[in-house]
Amino acid sequence: MSGSSIESQFSATPLFLARLLAYNQGMAVLAMVDDLFFRAKIEAAAKQAGVSVTIRATVEAAIAPPAEGSWQLVIVDLHLSTSDPIETISALRRMAPTTPMLGYGSHVEAELHARARAAGCTDVLPRSVFVQRLPALLSGK
Q1: Which of 20, 60, 73, 103 has the fewest C-beta atoms under 10 angstroms from its C-beta?
Q2: How many whole angstroms from its chain centre is CA 12?
Q3: Cα 133 from chain centroid (whole Å)
Q4: What CATH number should be reported for the domain holding residue 77?
Q5: How many domains does the chain have?
Q6: Does the residue 5 lie in any domain?
Q7: Is 0.85 topped by the overall pTM?
Q8: In terms of DSSP H, where are the helices of the chain?
Q9: Dihedral, 56, 60, 61, 67 alpha carbons, nearest 10
Protein backbone atom coordinates (compact mmCIF):
# COMPACT_ATOMS: atom_id res chain seq x y z
CA MET A 1 0.00 0.00 0.00
CA SER A 2 1.50 3.34 -0.98
CA GLY A 3 1.77 6.32 1.37
CA SER A 4 -0.78 8.32 -0.58
CA SER A 5 -3.38 5.57 -0.38
CA ILE A 6 -2.85 5.22 3.39
CA GLU A 7 -3.19 9.00 3.74
CA SER A 8 -6.42 9.02 1.75
CA GLN A 9 -7.87 6.23 3.90
CA PHE A 10 -6.94 7.83 7.21
CA SER A 11 -7.62 11.50 7.63
CA ALA A 12 -8.59 13.47 10.68
CA THR A 13 -12.34 13.94 10.73
CA PRO A 14 -13.79 17.43 10.25
CA LEU A 15 -15.24 17.33 13.79
CA PHE A 16 -11.86 16.47 15.27
CA LEU A 17 -10.13 19.26 13.33
CA ALA A 18 -12.83 21.80 14.24
CA ARG A 19 -12.50 20.99 17.94
CA LEU A 20 -8.73 21.12 17.73
CA LEU A 21 -8.70 24.48 15.94
CA ALA A 22 -11.09 25.92 18.52
CA TYR A 23 -8.75 24.88 21.32
CA ASN A 24 -5.43 25.73 19.64
CA GLN A 25 -4.67 29.06 21.35
CA GLY A 26 -2.49 28.32 24.38
CA MET A 27 -2.97 24.61 23.81
CA ALA A 28 -1.99 22.18 26.56
CA VAL A 29 -1.52 18.64 25.28
CA LEU A 30 -1.40 15.40 27.22
CA ALA A 31 0.45 12.63 25.38
CA MET A 32 0.11 9.10 26.69
CA VAL A 33 3.24 7.51 25.25
CA ASP A 34 6.08 5.36 26.54
CA ASP A 35 7.95 4.86 23.26
CA LEU A 36 11.05 7.09 23.18
CA PHE A 37 10.92 7.60 19.39
CA PHE A 38 7.34 8.90 19.43
CA ARG A 39 7.95 10.86 22.61
CA ALA A 40 10.78 12.71 20.86
CA LYS A 41 8.62 13.35 17.77
CA ILE A 42 5.76 14.75 19.88
CA GLU A 43 8.04 16.93 22.01
CA ALA A 44 9.83 18.35 18.94
CA ALA A 45 6.58 19.13 17.12
CA ALA A 46 5.08 20.73 20.25
CA LYS A 47 8.15 22.88 20.77
CA GLN A 48 8.06 24.02 17.15
CA ALA A 49 4.34 24.86 17.43
CA GLY A 50 4.75 26.62 20.79
CA VAL A 51 2.45 24.13 22.47
CA SER A 52 2.79 22.89 26.04
CA VAL A 53 2.98 19.08 26.10
CA THR A 54 2.99 16.76 29.08
CA ILE A 55 4.14 13.19 28.47
CA ARG A 56 2.76 10.44 30.70
CA ALA A 57 2.83 6.66 30.47
CA THR A 58 -0.01 5.79 32.86
CA VAL A 59 -3.45 7.19 33.67
CA GLU A 60 -2.46 7.56 37.32
CA ALA A 61 0.37 9.90 36.29
CA ALA A 62 -2.02 11.90 34.09
CA ILE A 63 -4.72 12.57 36.67
CA ALA A 64 -3.81 16.21 37.28
CA PRO A 65 -4.67 18.54 34.38
CA PRO A 66 -2.53 21.62 33.72
CA ALA A 67 -2.81 24.48 36.22
CA GLU A 68 -4.50 26.78 33.72
CA GLY A 69 -7.48 24.48 33.09
CA SER A 70 -7.95 21.30 31.17
CA TRP A 71 -6.13 19.53 28.37
CA GLN A 72 -7.06 20.80 24.92
CA LEU A 73 -5.85 17.62 23.23
CA VAL A 74 -5.04 14.12 24.40
CA ILE A 75 -2.79 11.91 22.26
CA VAL A 76 -2.70 8.18 22.99
CA ASP A 77 -0.23 5.64 21.64
CA LEU A 78 -2.33 2.53 20.97
CA HIS A 79 0.75 0.42 21.66
CA LEU A 80 1.40 1.56 25.24
CA SER A 81 3.41 -1.05 27.07
CA THR A 82 2.95 0.43 30.55
CA SER A 83 -0.85 0.21 30.58
CA ASP A 84 -3.75 -1.10 28.51
CA PRO A 85 -4.37 1.54 25.84
CA ILE A 86 -8.13 0.89 25.59
CA GLU A 87 -8.60 1.15 29.36
CA THR A 88 -6.43 4.28 29.29
CA ILE A 89 -8.63 5.86 26.62
CA SER A 90 -11.80 4.99 28.56
CA ALA A 91 -10.43 6.46 31.79
CA LEU A 92 -9.25 9.62 30.07
CA ARG A 93 -12.60 10.01 28.29
CA ARG A 94 -14.38 9.86 31.66
CA MET A 95 -12.00 12.55 33.00
CA ALA A 96 -12.33 14.77 29.90
CA PRO A 97 -15.61 14.02 28.11
CA THR A 98 -15.35 16.76 25.46
CA THR A 99 -11.59 16.98 24.90
CA PRO A 100 -10.42 15.92 21.43
CA MET A 101 -8.54 12.62 21.73
CA LEU A 102 -6.25 11.33 19.00
CA GLY A 103 -5.00 7.76 18.98
CA TYR A 104 -2.28 6.42 16.74
CA GLY A 105 -1.07 2.92 16.03
CA SER A 106 -0.04 0.38 13.43
CA HIS A 107 -1.98 0.73 10.17
CA VAL A 108 -2.58 -3.03 10.00
CA GLU A 109 -4.51 -3.15 13.29
CA ALA A 110 -7.94 -2.00 12.13
CA GLU A 111 -9.65 -3.79 15.04
CA LEU A 112 -7.50 -1.91 17.56
CA HIS A 113 -8.36 1.37 15.81
CA ALA A 114 -12.07 0.53 16.03
CA ARG A 115 -11.77 -0.38 19.73
CA ALA A 116 -9.97 2.91 20.40
CA ARG A 117 -12.78 4.85 18.72
CA ALA A 118 -15.38 2.91 20.69
CA ALA A 119 -13.49 3.66 23.93
CA GLY A 120 -13.54 7.39 23.24
CA CYS A 121 -10.91 8.44 20.68
CA THR A 122 -12.20 11.25 18.50
CA ASP A 123 -9.93 10.06 15.71
CA VAL A 124 -7.32 7.35 15.12
CA LEU A 125 -4.44 7.55 12.65
CA PRO A 126 -1.76 5.12 11.49
CA ARG A 127 1.65 5.92 12.97
CA SER A 128 3.08 7.15 9.66
CA VAL A 129 0.19 9.55 9.05
CA PHE A 130 0.30 10.70 12.68
CA VAL A 131 4.00 11.60 12.42
CA GLN A 132 3.44 13.34 9.09
CA ARG A 133 0.48 15.41 10.31
CA LEU A 134 1.58 16.07 13.90
CA PRO A 135 3.20 19.48 13.28
CA ALA A 136 0.11 20.71 11.42
CA LEU A 137 -2.28 19.34 14.05
CA LEU A 138 -0.39 21.04 16.87
CA SER A 139 -0.07 24.34 15.02
CA GLY A 140 -3.76 24.37 14.02
CA LYS A 141 -3.17 24.21 10.26
Answers
A1: 60
A2: 11
A3: 11
A4: 3.40.50.2300
A5: 1
A6: no
A7: no
A8: 3-9, 14-23, 36-49, 85-95, 110-119, 127-139
A9: 110
